[in-house]
Specification:
Belongs to the MptA/B family. By secondary structure, the protein is mainly alpha-helical. It has helices at 18-46, 59-66, 68-95, 103-119, 128-140, 174-187, 191-219, 224-231, 235-243, 248-263, 267-278, 288-296, 302-327, 335-338, 349-363, 368-392, 399-412, 422-432, 438-457, 471-489, 501-506. Helix 5 (128-140) crosses helix 6 (174-187), helix 6 (174-187) runs antiparallel to helix 7 and helix 10 (248-263) runs parallel beside helix 18.
């Protein structure tokens, strides 16, 4: 990474003592903690509180949500805190440039310090966690979440779920539904306690990533501290997987642990862990063919590979089928793979390019909507084709990297990309090497974009509050202004995207501490 002023070499021995480097790095850790604490305070006035929560009757919460200037203050705290967390993350990477001994300990400290206030914040950036309560209630009521939505339950709206979940079937696997049912049984659907337990379950996934991302990175000749900084310490990861309590955290943690086990020649353990990940959210089924390649081993014949693929599928699907038989849900989770959510997001490549195809088609007097739909289906089909190519082409070389690219293709070429979907593939990419050229710079841009997007998109203000300017507009202006400050004015961070000119973007700069392992798993 570049430093402020004259840039230091991207790799090599770090100047100064390790103690001095750690001291300077801890300045960034403290600044990030302050940002995270600001987000916690801001969440009290603009986070998602269930209507049935006792918090809505607390005098402090009432004051923060009824007084117009308190609402604006909380909006400013939440947005500035998020942007300060971004700056702290960038500065931590700069201060640890060269990644000397002790860097991983510093990054772990940062993850813990930055996530601690978020662990107790009111849900922000998403309220999907409240839908988890409804799905747990469906399980305890003996209903099938793969058939019925949470609107079939009494009082569902008072527990905080977005109305979009009212008629929606759950896209989650059986193991997460077991977790949801267990949480509801323990809390009797009390929303605040339920959120905390779902958050703790998500934090298990965060811990798994903290443990296994560096291990997987070292297996590929990549600096473990740097991989951990990219994949786990970034603000989008902490906000989405801790503050928002997305179950994707547990899915990703189990997947990374399973990939590491398989890469270390423990294929059965790897299959079990990845199957656990599929049981949280089925999308990680894409990893199974590559787990099979790791099991087959170097120099395996095609016959052995096909036999291993069949055995991998039999073990994983057999466990999932048996699990479905236990609760009577069968393989109902498969609908999430076969019948994806309709629509698109405008910032996804598929969504944005599809809009341009539609405009051109309409301008030519053609069915623009039909052409756009066909174009998006073509991109999805291309992603599946690429997965097949990466399964069959490459032999024994860089299997985990091919897995990461295949996973990235399926996510990035889908019509719908939620901000936290980027976090599905980032740990695998970071562990197999992200170079200090356009690759890391794209990560900076994407992480910042989605944090800014969430800051203005997901704010909860009581509808009867009369605001002269919407909180979304306030948050958007603050976030954009702070982003421009980081990119143009801050002498510490403004060189991150510009250092080295075009060569800095497209030059053959290796990742810090990495080596190109031709036969890496």
């Amino acid at each position: 990474m570049s430093a402020s002023g004259p840039a230091a070499p991207p790799a090599g021995p770090h100047t100064g003592s390790t103690a001095t480097v750690e001291l300077r790095a801890h300045v960034a850790v403290i600044q990030g903690f302050v940002g995270s604490l600001m987000m916690f305070l801001g969440s009290l006035g603009t986070g998602w509180i269930a209507n049935g929560s006792p918090m809505v009757r607390h005098p402090l919460v009432i004051e923060l949500r009824v007084n117009v200037w308190d609402v604006y203050t909380c909006t400013v705290l939440l947005t500035v805190g998020a942007m300060l967390l971004i700056r702290s993350w960038l500065r931590l990477g700069q201060r640890l440039r060269g990644w000397p001994p002790g860097s991983q300990r510093t990054v772990v400290t940062a993850v813990i310090a930055w996530s601690l206030p978020l662990l107790f914040a009111v849900p922000i950036y998403s309220r999907d966690v409240y839908a988890y309560i409804g799905q747990g209630r469906l399980m305890l009521a003996g209903k099938d979440p793969y058939v019925e939505g949470i609107s079939s339950l009494d009082n569902w709206f008072m527990l905080g779920a977005d109305p979009e979940w009212a008629e929606a079937r759950t896209p989650y696997g059986p193991y997460f539904l077991w977790i949801a049912a267990g949480v509801v049984r323990l809390t009797n659907a009390q929303p605040d306690l339920s959120v905390m337990l779902f958050r703790l379950a998500a934090y298990v996934g965060v811990v798994l990533c903290m443990v296994y991302v560096p291990k997987l990175a070292r297996l590929h000749g990549v600096n473990g501290a740097r991989a951990l900084w990219i994949a786990v310490a970034n603000p989008l990861f902490l906000i989405s997987f801790v503050a928002s309590a997305h179950n994707d955290a547990l899915m990703v943690g189990l997947a990374v642990a399973g990939v590491y086990a398989a890469a270390r020649k423990h294929p059965l353990l790897g299959i079990l862990l990845v199957t656990g990940s599929i049981g949280i959210k089925p999308i990680t089924i894409l990893l199974l063919p590559f787990i099979g390649l790791l099991w087959a081993g170097k120099g395996a014949s095609w016959l052995r590979r096909f036999v291993i693929w069949a055995a991998t599928a039999l073990i994983s699907f057999g466990l999932l089928a048996l699990s479905g038989a236990v609760d009577g849900l069968g393989l109902g989770w498969a609908w999430a793979l076969l019948d994806p959510t309709p629509g698109y997001t405008g910032y996804s490549p598929s969504g944005f390019l599809g809009q341009q195809v539609e405009r051109v088609g309409d301008a030519l007097g053609l069915d623009g909507g039909g052409l756009a739909g066909g174009f998006r289906r073509l991109l999805q089909g291309s992603a599946i084709l690429l997965v097949l190519v990466l399964m069959f082409v490459g032999g024994d070389r860089k299997i985990v990297r091919r897995m990461a690219v295949a996973f990235a293709a399926v996510v990035l070429l889908s019509p719908i990309i939620q901000p936290w979907y980027i976090l599905w593939l980032l740990p695998l990419l970071a562990a197999t090497g992200i170079k200090d050229n356009w690759q890391i710079r794209i990560i900076y841009v994407v992480i910042t974009f989605f944090v800014v997007f969430g800051a203005q998109d997901q704010l909860s203000v009581w509808p009867f509050i009369d605001l002269s300017v919407s909180v979304s507009q306030v948050a958007f202006v603050i976030a954009v202004a702070f982003t421009l400050y980081l990119a143009l004015l801050d002498r510490r961070t403004r060189t991150l995207l510009t250092h080295g000119g075009w060569k800095g973007w497209f030059g053959p700069t290796p990742a810090h501490g990495s080596t190109d392992l031709r036969w890496a798993p």
